[in-house]
Fold this sequence. Notes:
187 residues, globular
Amino acid sequence: MQDTSKQYDAVIATCKSLFIKKMSDYGSAWRILRLPSLTDQIFIKAQRIRGLQQNAVRKVDEGEVSEFMGIVNYCIMALIQLEKGVVEQPDLSVNKATGLYEKQVAITKKLMEDKNHDYGEAWRDMRVSSLTDLILQKLLRVKSIENNEGNTQVSEGVDANYQDMINYAVFAMILLEEKQAVIKKTN
């Protein structure tokens, strides 16, 4: 579990760095996005990953990792939107947005640690393609909840689904990194 925590933090640090750089370039323009728009952005990323995993030919020179990073960052934006609400104009400084980002990461990492303990790090024996499919499944659940105006009878809310997607994406990036390390060792 100790390695997982460190690996998780390293992946999140990379995602957060990208988030901060994009905030510096674009400001908090994402604050105008409603949750279904963010869900659709995440869906596009997950569909692209699935396509990369299934197709032998790639026409755009970007791999799965950058798309998983996008999933993490869009999910964190969605969690911030759930907390703060949607605005008509960008309203967050880089520092304020970074603080909100870190708050959501802390909550989501705690969830990961609790589930990781209970499941015995089962994700380490999963395929990245399975994690992608789980993200897509969570997205379809979120879309259904959104279409039902947030009402559920027995299911967890959209926040738990966004948190699970973050954790699945982080796990996928850890597995991809470990696979690259093995390939480099054997070459």
